Amino acid sequence: MYEMRAEPSTELGRLLWHVIAKDTTLSTLCGSLLSPDRAPLPAAEPASDHYCAACMHAVRAQGEAVTEDRA
Fold first, then answer.
1. Helix (H, G, I), strand (E, B), or coil: what is residue 1?
2. Which of 3, 12, 29, 45 could form a disulfide with 55 if both were Cys (CB 3.0 to 4.6 A apart)?
3. CA of 53: how far to CAs of 38, 58, 60, in Å?
């Protein structure tokens, strides 16, 4: 199972969710580096949530590879 982390986007009130790589907590599946000292996001609801397309593609590819191995 993968862990996800929301990062503030350049657009006000928007969060971008990344999938964290399993071998480290400072990088994502898309290759973005996460700041270890970033403050937690505020509890207020963001205007919108979005998911990193590159991270989602990497998770899907991993799932397809596991499914093919079991077939």
1. coil
2. 29
3. 22, 9, 10
Amino acid identity at 1 = M
Report the C-alpha gap between 57 and 60 in whole angstroms.
5
Reported as a single tens digit per residue, the pLDDT across 1-34 is 788 888 877 666 678 888 988 877 788 899 888 8
Contact indicator for 17, 9 with CB cutoff of 8 Å: no
CA 17, distance to chain mean position in Å, is 4
Sign of torsion over alpha carbons 23, 36, 7, 4: positive
51 beta partners: 17
Phi, psi of 63 (to 5 degrees): -65, -40
Tell me if residue 16 falls in helix, strand or coil.
strand
Scan for tokens 């400072």, then name that residue.
Answer: 26
